[in-house]
Design goal:
Helices cover 1% and strands 46% of the residues. The protein is mainly beta. The longest helix has 4 residues. This is Family 43 glycosylhydrolase.
């Protein structure tokens, strides 16, 4: 790679189902956040290659009671990000509730509270379009068969121009069952270009699918289709679902995801041009590029979403999300540095997957080492805190207060089918209640745990292979908890969280 080129993926972590928009010289991206809070991450770039995380659009998931406990694969699915009438708009589908919309005058907010545009089971992947020529507004969405019994079709609606409601019952505008070889058509993004209505939509499933393009002179069809991006002879499986954006100088680019197991859905940038027959051509004549000339935009310094954190004043950076809507007092602010997590009492102390108070960030897509310092400030027998790799299976290393008052270093794990955790290594004494914790994440998301309780780092237990949930990549997490009981159970202090390349 040279200073004139970039290499994919441009976002090497689980920024699932990305959508992108340009406003002036700035590009903004959002992604699925499922059941984590805050949700709807907001990323910013000036060159489409270097991205930073500038905030979240959704403080809490609604209705709040539905997300008081983790629902890892539910919640915010496949948002669309648009700019219209001097406002930013995000539409998304909650497969159990319907289509929501929020908007804001600036990307950093304030964002409106979620407005339920259309209630219903299985309504997913909505995308609006405001037709600047006619003043009409439209919405297209897909279907989740798990909730509705319907899939492989796109439904279109006329929409109120203020985005508050739909004006009809909807019509199937693309039926994937009528296209030979097509299945699991979803994730539509709707555009107006050169006198045509365009829908860019993936099909074929997240791991093996392709990117399709559809066009029609009228919004309600009929549409003709073409495959415009597929794996071909590359190692980029299932390249699809994303957004088209045009630079100020008129260059076209397409951002999409690739499913990478425990790493989730990483984001690639593809060049895009219009062929002699006026159909879009993505990548290298329809195949994903590994390395390519950078967009013709002013050079920017290298940047990526933050991972490290010193937790100044007890505050955690915007890269962190809870596994459900946050509760009061889980993290307390103070005058120094370091994250102070309350040892929240829970009847599910044996299973991190069921806890809402795990503070997480995305697992990096490249080999790396995650490290944090921990002090357990709790005299409660059974109180514990640690550093975890969290997915359908999980593993963690940390400190636990014993019934005899001593603090032990413990390392535990649970398989995907297990209902609770068990020891991955023999507990050993951590006399001062302090430890440095480390997870080395190698190829294939294989994790090696180690800890330093005052005598240098020592490896602990066998290698643990991180696993995703169904739609969500594995997460790194910090937690503090205690068994069910009475009164305050103390806290744990985390300092100097670092992720370094291996």
């Amino acid at each position: 790679m040279t200073s004139e080129t970039y290499r994919n993926p441009v976002l090497d972590a689980d920024w699932s189902d990305p959508d992108v928009v340009r406003v002036g010289d700035d590009f903004y991206l959002t992604a699925s956040s499922f059941g984590r809070a805050p949700g709807l991450p907001l990323l910013h770039s000036r060159d489409l290659v270097n991205w930073t995380l500038v905030g979240h659009a959704l403080e809490r998931l609604e209705p709040a009671g539905e997300f008081a406990a983790p629902r890892h694969d539910c919640g915010v699915w496949a948002p669309s990000l648009r700019y219209h009438d001097e406002r930013f708009w995000i539409f998304w589908g909650d497969p159990d509730q319907g289509i929501f919309q929020i908007n804001a005058p600036q990307i950093r907010g304030p964002w409106t509270r979620p407005h339920l545009l259309k209630a219903g089971k299985g309504l997913i992947d909505p995308c609006p379009l405001w037709d600047e020529e006619t003043g009409e507004a439209y919405l297209v969405h897909a279907w989740a068969k798990s909730r509705s019994g319907v899939k492989n079709r796109l439904t279109g609606h006329r929409m109120r121009p203020d985005g508050t409601g739909l004006l009809d019952e909807g019509k199937v505008i693309v039926d994937g069952d009528r296209i030979p070889g097509w299945f699991t058509l979803e994730g539509p993004k709707l555009y107006r270009h050169d006198g045509w209505f365009w829908i860019l939509a993936p099909a074929g499933g997240v791991e093996t699918g392709w990117q399709g393009a559809f066009r029609s002179r009228g919004f309600f069809g009929p549409y003709e289709e073409r495959i415009v991006l597929e794996q071909k002879d590359t190692d980029v499986n299932g390249p699809h679902q994303g957004g088209w954006v045009r630079t100020p100088s008129g260059e076209d680019w397409f951002l999409h995801f690739q499913q990478r197991g425990a790493y989730g859905r990483v984001v690639h940038l593809q060049p895009m041009r219009w062929g002699p027959d006026d159909w879009p051509v993505l990548g290298d004549d329809g195949a994903p590029v590994a390395e390519h000339r950078r967009p013709g935009l002013p050079p920017q310094p290298p940047a990526a979403p933050a991972t490290d954190d010193d937790f100044p004043g007890g505050r955690y950076g915007r890269q962190w999300q809870w596994t459900a809507n946050p509760g009061d007092g889980w993290a307390t602010q103070h005058s120094g540095d370091g994250l102070r997590l309350t040892c929240v009492r829970s009847q599910d102390a044996h299973d991190l997957r069921k806890l809402p108070h795990v503070l997480t960030q995305r697992l990096p897509g490249a080999p790396c080492t995650a490290e944090v310092e921990l002090r357990l400030d709790s005299d409660e027998p059974g109180a514990r805190a640690g550093l975890a790799v969290l997915g359908d299976a999980f593993g963690w290393i940390g400190l636990q207060r014993g019934t005899d008052g001593t603090v032990h270093l413990v390392h535990r794990f649970a398989e995907a089918v297990a209902e609770g955790e068990r020891d991955a290594a023999h507990p050993r004494l951590a006399a001062e209640g302090r430890a440095r914790l480390r997870i080395e994440i190698g190829a294939g998301a294989r994790c090696r745990f180690s800890a330093d309780v005052g005598d240098g780092f020592r490896p602990s237990g066998p290698v643990f292979a991180a696993t995703p949930w169904r739609w969500v990549g594995a997460l790194l997490g910090l937690f503090a908890l205690a068994p069910v009981g009475q009164g305050h159970a103390g806290a744990a202090a985390f300092t100097r969280f670092r992720i370094s390349a291996s």
